[in-house]
Design brief:
The chain is mainly β and 430 residues long. It has five helices and 23 strands. A twelve-stranded antiparallel beta barrel has the order 6-9-10-13-14-15-16-17-18-19-20-23. Residues 1-20 form the signal peptide.
Length: 430
């Protein structure tokens, strides 16, 4: 590199944060009033007036010019490769053009660290078996605050179910409280004796609290760039409008290395810090490793495959099991402000959710084997048909051991390893 080129590049690095730039891609897409923050051998990173960071490959850029009414010092112009026009100092009182980045999408299910968010609860509510694809449709609304200092990130995500929000009578029992003991024998005894032996206002069918809940995810992060990559730390809190749901809180530490930019690797540790559910999950950790690559970056149409691998250490403080919680690939298609994604969650270690803390056990016999990969099938617990089968097994079994095994075999199913879901939505700045 010549002495003049070195001087030009040095001056560009020094003054790039304070001059306005317009970047035009070969596809005709234009980014105006942006500031170039970083240049690597393959990419240019820039930020717009709202604080949104974008990275584009150099070979996708048509030209970089000064914005209207801006001038560039002659020494800072290098036409051999887009090195950027630069921006004048802004008025410190000037507000960003946009305040929020809003994203909304429709999905049929969702997942978090190996746990299903809506589909499996819907199966218990509607007395259907667990499966790999649900129709538990919900609307996701995410808001990212723009205009913050580059290092700070703050956002909210709300998930609102569109189906099965109401409570239902799932156990079909006559009882004095939701989920209570079946008291049908009192009704039968009253009919036989022709005497009322119970209070009709107390013993009746009741709805269990099984409607699909709303979720609120709140996250705040701080990022710090170093020669070893970008380190981040922050918090994630999860709330639900369910009386039995206790807020979950995570202390998150992350690292995005500056190598393998094509794969965009990121590593994070989600550390459970709140004493919820009697401390069952307090102090547990989930390590997350992700990879992603955006094809046609900077174009109107883009394709982004990604992969997230999670490792639980441990799943809870009762079983204290370790293993891969989930392997979650995703394929997303973007066109302008719209996107469509196909997702899958694979439970590589199903025993992590093989207990009552994750999957309720409501059969005739409690599911005490947390290593057999089986859970209670919601479709085989309640109703007259299942009761007839249980009564028949009880009558013809030669002993209690055989009866228990046969009833458990009837009422259980294997844990679902793969859960599929999709999302369709849009993203805008407001």
């Amino acid at each position: 590199m010549s002495r003049k080129s070195i001087l030009t590049f040095f001056l560009w690095l020094c003054f790039s944060p304070i001059f306005a730039t317009t970047i035009v891609t070969k596809s005709g897409r234009s980014f105006e009033k942006v500031t170039i923050d970083k240049v690597t051998e393959q990419e240019i990173e820039f930020v717009d007036t709202s604080g949104i960071i974008t990275r584009i490959r150099k070979d996708k850029i048509q030209k970089i010019t000064a914005d209207a009414n801006e001038t560039i010092p002659e020494l800072l112009t290098d036409e051999s490769l887009p090195t950027g026009a630069l921006e004048k100092k802004k008025d410190p009182n000037e507000l960003p053009e946009f305040s929020f980045l809003l994203s909304q999408s429709l999905s049929n299910d969702g997942a978090f660290q190996g746990s299903d968010l809506f589909g499996e609860r819907q199966a218990r509510r509607n007395k259907t078996e667990y499966k790999d694809f649900y129709e538990a449709y919900f609307l996701t609304s995410s808001v990212e605050v723009l205009g913050l200092p580059k290092q700070f990130k703050f956002g909210l995500t709300i998930m609102n179910p569109l189906v099965d929000r109401t409570n239902t009578d799932a156990d079909l029992r006559l009882q004095s409280a939701p989920g209570g003991q079946d008291q049908s024998n009192l009704i039968n005894a009253s009919l036989r004796n022709n005497t009322l032996l119970y209070d009709p206002n107390q013993v009746k069918t009741r709805k269990e609290k099984n409607g699909l809940p709303d979720y609120l995810f709140t996250r705040a992060m701080y990022e710090h760039e170093t020669k070893l990559g970008t380190f981040s730390a922050g918090f994630l809190f999860i709330n639900a409008n369910d009386p039995i749901y206790v807020m979950r809180g995570y202390w998150i530490i992350g690292w995005k290395p500056n190598f393998l930019p094509w794969l965009n690797p990121q590593f994070s540790m989600n550390n459970k810090m709140l004493n919820d559910y009697g401390g069952i999950f307090q102090g547990t950790h989930n390590y997350r490793l992700s990879f992603a690559h955006e094809f046609f970056k900077g174009e109107e149409f883009r394709i982004t495959p990604s992969l997230v691998i999670g490792y639980a250490d441990v799943n809870d403080n009762v079983d204290r099991k370790k293993g891969i919680s989930d392997i979650s690939p995703k394929l997303q298609f973007d066109y302008l402000k719209y996107f469509f994604s196909v997702n899958m969650m694979y439970r590589a270690t199903p025993s992590l959710v093989d207990n009552a803390s994750y999957t309720p056990s409501e059969g005739v016999y409690a599911d005490t084997n947390s290593n057999d990969g089986k859970v209670t099938d919601p479709s085989k617990i309640y109703g007259y048909q299942n009761q007839i089968i249980v009564d028949a097994i009880s009558q013809y079994s030669p002993n209690d051991l055989v009866k228990r095994e046969l009833i458990s075999h009837h009422q259980q199913q294997h844990i679902i390893h793969n859960i599929f879901f999709y999302s369709l939505g849009y993203t805008i700045k407001i």
